[in-house]
User: What shape does this take?
Amino acid sequence: MTTVAETANPAAERNAAPGWTVVVEQELRDLWLGGRGLLLSVAFSLLLSVIAYLVATNSALNFLEHRESVNLVLQVAIAVGGLLTLLAAADAVSGERERGTLESVLLSPVARSQIAVGKVLAALSLWVAAFAITVPYAWFLGRGVGIVSDALVTGVVVGTLLAVFLASLGLIVSLFAGSNRVSLSLSLFVLLALFAPTQLPSSAQQGWAGELLLRVNPLTAGEHYVGKILVSGHAWTQDLSWLASPLAAAVVLAAAAPILGARFMLLRGGVAG
Amino acid sequence: MSRRRIVAVVSALSAAAALAASLAGPAGASRISVSVSRAQISTHLGDRLTFRSTVVNHGQTAARGLIAHLNIVGLESAVYVDPEDWSSHRTIYLDALPAGESTTITWRLQAVSAGDFDVYVAVLPRRAIARPPTTGPAVRVAVADRRTLNSGGIVPLALGVPALLGLLALAVRFRRS
Amino acid sequence: MKPAIEAEGIGKDYGSLAAVRDLSFAVDAGEVLGVLGPNGAGKTTAIRVLTTILSPSRGRFAVAGIPSTRSREIRRRIGVLPESAGYPERQTGEEYLTYHARLHGHTRRSARAVASGLLDEVGLVPRRGSLIASYSRGMRQRLGIARTLVNDPGVVFLDEPTLGLDPAGQRQVLAHVRKIARERGAAVLLSTHLLTEVEENCSRVLILNRGRVVAEGTVSEVVRRAAAPRSGRLQVAPEQADRAAAALAGVADVARVTRDGQPGWLSVAFASPEARREDASLNAAVRALLEAEIVLISFQLEGARLSDAFLAMTEAA
Assistant: This one.
């Protein structure tokens, strides 16, 4: 009877990096050296340039509108950065399925939960880049009204919470979607639905029901908090309760993503293997 | 006489003049008067300011359903004024004011535009139709400009950041192709 | 000593459809097992179960001595080239292999060394720094084979590795397959449509049909078991063709005689009893022609082939 050759590589494995770091590194290379990330960053910076130019050259701008302009730049950064992160995560699994590259990754001994973590972290790099690009614009516009540090700190806190939430959400959608088109469409729909309450007339946003709707929705809650700091000049702790839903959403979905990834990262979307 | 004392006397005289003006107002509104704590305020763009207005019921019966409303008027046509920007709490619904009694309202605003403005309070009864409001004296608010936005340098920033990122994208693409 | 692959009663259902039923077989190290079957026979499903991509509905298996309950350990010991493998277009061949080597536990340095060695082995060194988008289909398949070897596996699964390749590409790929078994001592499970591939490269063959094993063994064992009908072509003088057909039709071992289209050529199909001797049938046919004083110009006996056995087994089921 023929024996099975022992072919494991124990020496290499002792020094090997954790699976999720290998996945993050390669996903970052694919995203940024592959060119997609940089092109998106150029487009985003053009958007901010247009906004900043219009604001800066408007000599009729009053003080409050100036603060609102800084708020606008931050809100755009958070919204667009969040959108890019969401779409990158929504493509992470379903896109690989369609490109035929998922199976070879699943055939590696890396735990599927680690693969999920690596993909979420790589998607978050788009938020990091968006925020980094926003810094000079926020500094330029905010220095005159003394809110640069407020803008940057609130931006990074709220933006990061929302980006973590959206990246995790995108990955979860990607796990279950039957196709990449469905994954991207559904993710975009959810994002638009979360932004929709901001378009309600201010009268609809009053009262306990309106406020509850705004508080429960992590995107509107985060936007509200940033606005109170930058436009209304509130102290950090004055509206801290508005950060409850962004924090909860980020924590819950960030925990759920690897758990669901371990079970549902399959060759077919959401089908039990 | 000290400078502070002079200012106090002038304020008192202004208030008295305002009272006289309000008492001489149209019939029907004459039992209500409005006075202000300050005649003028000098401040800087972005600063917050406060003043008080006192509503007095000179009539024989209680005044019910009174509404006090704050207005801001720009004295230069080129300056756009959105009162909502200055204060989001500009309408106060007063409790019933017994005869001979008064109530004081504290108004808090933020000077969001530079220039000269008049700020005044109007008091009107809720249910009265075609009855003119009683207005208090205007508080002259002079807001000194503080240059909050230097537009110089925006073009290099607006062009430079996208250009830098674009060059980086091209370099990466060229290196990888 | 345990086989490299052991499967016992494997079944995989998709709802009410049984994609694989009662699959049982074993493969030793250094052996190449060919898995044949028509489309939808369950070959790819079977491979995905054995490589832990899919979980079985029934049965148990062990790969490289590791039971199916320890799927991550199995994946450490196997190399797999899936049927519809895609490749990331914006990575270079070297980056791709390095990444997968690191996924299998190599450090950055050792992964690069492994990638270099494998690129050399499959003949892709000149294209190591090129994007995979610029690779031909044959290069991608060779890259895929290289990827299956990053962890120096004891068991290799190849699902249709020559699909879409020209004959030269097929030859190259199959040469690598033989080398994997011969030089690395790995057990190889080769799933293919091409019967000649199995005949030329596999020590044993497994034929699947509708999820079931219909034949297993060496090529000659399978052919013999299938008892595929033998046939031949003979040439006589054109004016004697009718008399030759009549003479052959009278032979008990001859099942059918037909005109071949070309003047003087006849096709003869021999009967397929279980224990018929080939030489007895042939002798009877030649004797019949001689007795009829028909000059036999040429006789080609077509031996039973795997393709005949394959068709017989999969069409009959």
Summary: Chain C has two domains: 5-217, 228-316. The longest strand of chain C covers residues 17-27.
